[in-house]
Write a structure and sequence with these properties.
Layout lengths: L1 E4 L15 H6 L1 H7 L3 E4 L27 H13 L3 E6 L9 H8 L11 E2 L20 E4 L4 E4 L14 H17 L3 E4 L41 H13 L5 E4 L5 H4 L12 E2 L11 H14 L7 E3 L8 H5 L4 H10 L3 E5 L19 H5 L42 H5 L5 H14 L1 H5 L1 E7 L3 E7 L6 E6 L5 E4 L5 E7 L7 E4 L1 E4 L4 E6 L2
Parallel strand pairs: 1-2, 1-11, 2-3, 3-7, 7-8, 8-9, 10-11
Antiparallel strand pairs: 4-6, 5-6, 12-13, 13-14, 14-19, 15-18, 16-17, 16-19
Helix pairs in contact: 5-6, 10-13
Bound molecules: 1-O-alpha-D-glucopyranosyl-D-fructose.
1-O-alpha-D-glucopyranosyl-D-fructose binds next to loops.
């Protein structure tokens, strides 16, 4: 199980209102207690913070706001001491515009680093080189008056895209990976990996016929020529070869693509990522038919020997508790942790943190600020972790960079730790069962029953007890009936104390109830 930490918002140890590496170290025992096996840290590198760390000005250092390199070394050691792994975020598609490489590149057309970024002459009519759009609004081309060319930025203009067709760029970026591998990190989550290579001819993107006005302006076009180019797999292979030379390391690519295209990012013969993130559940309607179909579809498209993974939240998306509602957070926990594959849990989801409404004048996310009428700010899912009932939820001694949820006195780690019926206790219990049962770790997935209320599936690993998972997506009671004869013990219910209750073919399921049943052989 991977746990994503957004360092700004996890724990502030030095009273500046921003989370930091020492703050994370202080909570490692909590993460170990919960059952976390691997941490992924969102960027903590030097950055002007135009995109809160996804605009990096030095790939091989720590931003002072998060601490020092000694703090990082200490963190890595403390993670390893507890037998956990540490993955760091790698942002190879773009640097900050304040990175010395870009400063050099921008200084003149003749600079040796000019070609490290993507510079183009204006169109014959004086306009932008083509119609490509930036993810965070407006054209993806920024005019530089001094050198009289445009540079390409898939995100903010403060995030110029590196030119991955230039071998020197590849060498420099692999060196940055090597820097962290030499320190002993266990792998990378690679930011927007499907963006790395752009069409060599810079052809215009076609219009998206399904564009709706509430969507980000980026979606007016289909990014056919600006992303997911066949040559991208060559550069990903180079990253993978470097990783493999360090032994057992992992590379997870961030890829938002339809599943058919996503699967190409599995590099099973060592020529790509170990896994592309599977974001399918983030966009699937919360009902048993839709979820069941999405799981089946993903399983069926997976390449042979491809290992699945599941995501219900991250720092770019709505909080799962807000999306499905408080009564369904237990079902979300069970689904994430009992499907076949590696789950990634976003910090705070384990206590059911919700999206926090941020008043307009407090919005920090550039995606929200640049498209104010579209409700696209990602701040609501990035608020400070709620540790206890002290002011600011025990996150910090001072007012944090982003406001803390008003519900922190009720929704916090300390309170939920001592309550056996809390969502936190549920996460811990599921993880502990999962970690001791081969069928739940590596067993096959098989749908058993889907009704308008229930999604029921089996996890089976030869030679081990099979598990039946029953999830009630509705807020009314339901009845599970099996055609096969089944018998076993209920190991866990999300709604009641039922431990080791006897289970047989017919079973009454409570509203919003999820069950883990260990079947008799
Ligand atoms: O996100 C890539 C990405 O596609 C996002 O823009 C996402 O689709 C959108 O924000 C949904 O609201 C990665 C990082 O996860 C994100 O935080 C960065 O802002 C972005 O890349 C640029 O590095």
């Amino acid at each position: 199980m991977i746990y994503q930490i957004y360092p700004r918002s996890f724990r502030d140890s030095n009273g500046d209102g921003v989370g930091d590496l020492l703050g994370i170290i202080g909570q490692l025992d909590y993460l170990k207690w919960l059952g976390v096996e691997c941490l992924w840290l969102s960027p903590f590198y030097p950055s002007p913070m135009a995109d809160f760390g996804y605009d990096i000005s030095n790939y091989c250092a720590v931003d002072p706001i998060f601490g020092t390199m000694e703090d990082f070394d200490h963190l890595l050691q403390e993670v390893h001491t507890r037998n956990m792994k540490l993955m760091v975020d790698f942002v190879p598609n773009h640097s900050s515009s304040e990175h010395p490489w870009f400063q050099a590149s921008k200084s003149s057309k003749a600079d040796p680093k000019r070609d490290w970024y993507i510079w183009r002459d204006p169109a014959p009519d004086g306009g932008t080189p083509n119609n490509w759009l930036a993810m965070f609004g407006g054209s993806a081309w920024e005019w530089d008056e001094q050198s009289r060319q445009h540079y390409y930025h898939g995100f903010l203009s403060e995030q110029p895209d590196l030119n991955w067709r230039n071998p020197e760029v590849i060498t420099a970026m692999l060196d940055a990976m090597r820097f962290w591998l030499d320190k002993g990190v266990d792998g990378f989550r690679v930011d927007v990996i499907w963006h790395l290579i752009k069409d060599a001819m810079f052809r215009d993107n076609p219009v998206n016929p399904d564009y709706q006005p509430d969507m980000a302006t980026y979606n007016q076009l289909l990014p056919v020529f600006s992303t997911d180019q066949p040559e991208v797999h060559e550069v990903i292979s180079q990253m993978r070869r470097l990783l493999d030379s360090y032994g057992e390391k992992v590379m997870i690519g961030e890829v938002y693509l339809p599943l058919e295209k996503l699967m190409r990012y599995y590099g099973l013969s060592g020529d790509g990522a170990h896994m592309p993130f599977n974001f399918k559940l983030l966009e699937t309607r919360w009902d048993p038919n839709a979820i069941g179909a999405a799981v089946e579809n993903y399983e069926s498209l997976l390449p042979k020997d491809g290992w699945p993974n599941w995501v219900l939240g991250n720092h770019d998306q709505r909080r799962i508790a807000s999306r499905v509602g408080k009564s369904q957070v237990g079902i979300a926990a069970l689904l994430l942790l009992t499907l076949r594959g590696t789950p990634t849990l976003y910090y705070g989801d384990e206590i059911g943190m919700e999206d926090v409404q941020i008043p307009k004048d407090e919005i920090r996310d550039p995606q929200g600020i640049n498209m104010p009428d579209k409700n696209l700010s990602r701040d609501p899912a990035r608020t400070p972790m709620q540790w206890d009932n002290r002011p600011f939820g025990g996150f910090s001694e001072v007012a944090p960079w982003l406001r803390v949820s008003a519900d922190y006195e009720e929704v916090n780690v300390r309170k939920q730790m001592s309550n056996h019926e809390s969502i936190l206790s549920l996460y811990k219990q599921i993880l502990s069962i999962r970690q001791s049962e081969p069928s739940l770790q590596i067993g096959n997935y098989r749908t058993v029953l889907i009704t308008s209320q229930l999604l029921c599936y089996m996890r089976e690993e030869q030679g081990n007890p099979a598990f039946l998972i029953i999830l009630n997506f509705s807020n009314t009671d339901a009845r599970f009936e099996s055609r096969d004869s089944l018998a076993g013990d209920v190991l866990l219910s999300s709604q009641r104390q039922l431990d080791f209750a006897f289970f047989s073919n017919g079973f009454s399921v409570l509203a919003n109830e999820g069950l883990i049943i260990k079947l008799k052989k």
